[in-house]
Design goal:
Layout: H1 2-13, E1 16-19, E2 29-38, E3 41-49, E4 65-71, E5 76-85, E6 103-107, E7 110-117, E8 127-133, E9 141-142, E10 156-159, E11 165-169, E12 176-180, E13 187-193, E14 201-202, E15 206-210, E16 213-221, E17 227-233, E18 241-247, E19 260-264, E20 267-274, E21 285-291, E22 312-313, E23 325-327, E24 330-333, E25 342-345, E26 352-359, E27 367-374, E28 379-385, E29 392-398, E30 403-413, E31 421-430, E32 437-443
Parallel strand pairs: 22-26
Antiparallel strand pairs: 1-5, 2-3, 3-4, 4-5, 6-7, 7-8, 8-9, 10-11, 11-12, 12-13, 14-16, 15-16, 16-17, 17-18, 19-20, 20-21, 23-26, 24-25, 26-31, 27-30, 27-32, 28-29, 28-31
Bound molecules: beta-L-arabinofuranose.
């Protein structure tokens, strides 16, 4: 009995570990991710979407609490659990489900969490609250009242090299900026409108600095869904010169996108959201991809990927359906799963699925296992190094399992010894029609 209670206690205390690839988190809907490097780790502070009950939330969004996530390798993510709940906010309207896009930043060893919430006093659509902690994952102590002198959504705080902090916020035709006092919760001076930005709806401002240039980035919606755009300047308050888009708008009915940009271990990354799991624009899932700059400092366009960021250990169940590239096959969500899980299906002879950055350096691998299902005559699953023309690593025969969802594990010896970090490709061989379905592969 004591053991049982101990196990329950551990489940409550121990953080929940999730695996990379896009979307990053599958056990919760997460949106508006703000990523920060804190104590050498990469933290992400997203908002959380839940399904709205009749009459709840605003604009179709129901957002009751915040979680914090962290990773050291950009692939394994720890969910530190709920850090703030809507009904803990003293100035907030109870059960208003309006905890929209947050931010968190460190100053002098303290962590300041900024969030928009619906005020009990009905003085604005959203006010901005602050909570303070000694560690990025909390516990956070909520300030009793909202910040005076600002009202709006999507707070973002930037601290310049001279220690001056700036609060950016807003949604609508205008985005705003104001200096913060040293206490990080009182505004200092007048709120200004950011100048030099294109017309039409904007929100989710995110400021970062690189090589002395201030990058003011924002989701923009001239029409249809949001695209990620940016402007650059020589001062945190602008004016800025509009430079265009770095992520195109969604074309599949997810109206919002909301992002942050961070440099971690020498690589720039953009965190953003889409509705990959739910296909419902109010139940979003955060994603991440590498971001690159041109020699002149302009940002290269980011094409959202399923593979995402980080390096996958070869000993993991490698979810090749989160591919880098695919040919003559598809990736679809499996039905009847408790947690979202995809499969590679509609596989044709000559098709392939490429998965980048697999780490073979930790062990000597001699075998590979694949989870497959097949309601046809089967075929061969080849695993190759690099692209589909690459050196053969293993060749696994696949036979019928008599149903497309009757899964079995098949294995083969490695024909090539694998070292370091490698891209791999699963190449599908067989006769006519669809050959088999593939869930994951794992090196042993
Ligand atoms: O998540 C709710 C709101 O939608 C955010 O505050 C906006 O940026 C948009 O993502």
């Amino acid at each position: 009995m004591i053991r049982f209670f101990k196990a329950i206690l551990l489940m409550l205390i121990l953080p929940f570990i999730v695996e990379g690839n896009n979307p990053l988190v599958k056990h919760l809907y997460t949106a508006d991710p703000t990523a920060r490097v804190m104590n050498g780790k990469l933290y992400v502070f997203p908002s959380c979407d839940i399904k709205c009950a009749e009459g709840e939330g605003n604009n179709g969004f129901c957002m009751p609490f915040y979680h914090a996530f962290s990773s050291e390798n950009m692939f394994d993510w720890t969910d530190h659990g709920r850090i703030i709940d809507q009904n803990d906010v003293q100035w907030g309207k109870k059960n208003s489900y309006g905890m929209w896009a947050p931010d968190c930043i460190e100053k002098d060893g303290k962590y300041y969490y900024y969030f928009p919430g619906m005020p009990e006093d009905s003085s604005a659509f959203r006010r901005i609250g602050v909570a303070i902690a000694k560690s990025p994952e909390g516990p956070y102590k909520l300030e009793k009242d909202y910040m005076k002198g600002v009202s709006g959504i999507d707070p973002n705080v930037f601290i310049d090299d001279d220690g001056q902090a700036y609060l950016y916020y807003g949604g609508g035709e205008k985005l705003q900026v104001v200096k913060l006092k040293d206490d990080m919760k009182t505004i200092d001076g007048e709120v200004k409108t950011i100048m030099g930005l294109p017309a039409k709806y904007k929100e989710g401002p995110f400021m970062f600095k690189r090589n002395g240039v201030y990058y003011f980035t924002f989701p923009h919606s001239p029409s249809g869904s949001e695209e990620l755009a940016y402007a650059i300047g020589t001062s945190p308050m602008g004016p800025f010169e509009y430079k265009g888009l770095f992520m195109q708008r969604w074309t599949d009915h997810c109206w919002t996108n909301h992002h942050s940009v961070v440099e971690y271990k020498g690589q720039w990354i953009v965190f953003y959201h889409h509705h990959d799991i739910s296909k419902d624009e109010h139940l979003r899932s955060m994603c991440a991809d590498y971001l690159n700059f041109n020699a002149d400092g302009t940002i290269q366009e980011v094409i959202p990927s399923l593979r995402g960021i980080g390096i996958c250990p070869a000993s993991n169940k490698i979810q090749v359906d989160r591919y880098t590239d695919i040919h003559k096959a598809q990736a679809n969500l499996m039905s009847d799963q408790e947690e979202p899980n995809w499969q590679v299906d509609y596989i044709e002879n000559g098709g392939w699925v490429k998965y980048d950055r697999v780490d073979f350096s930790k062990k000597k691998y001699t075998k590979v296992t694949a989870r497959v299902a097949c309601d046809a005559q089967g075929g061969v699953l080849e695993i190759r190094q690099g692209g589909h023309w690459g050196k053969l690593i293993a060749s696994i025969p696949v036979k019928s399992t008599e149903a497309w969802n009757n899964w079995t594990e098949v294995e083969a010896e490695l024909q090539t010894s694998m070292q370091g970090v490698q891209n791999i490709t699963c190449v599908f061989k067989g006769d006519k029609g669809y050959l088999y379905n593939l869930d994951w592969i794992q090196f042993r």
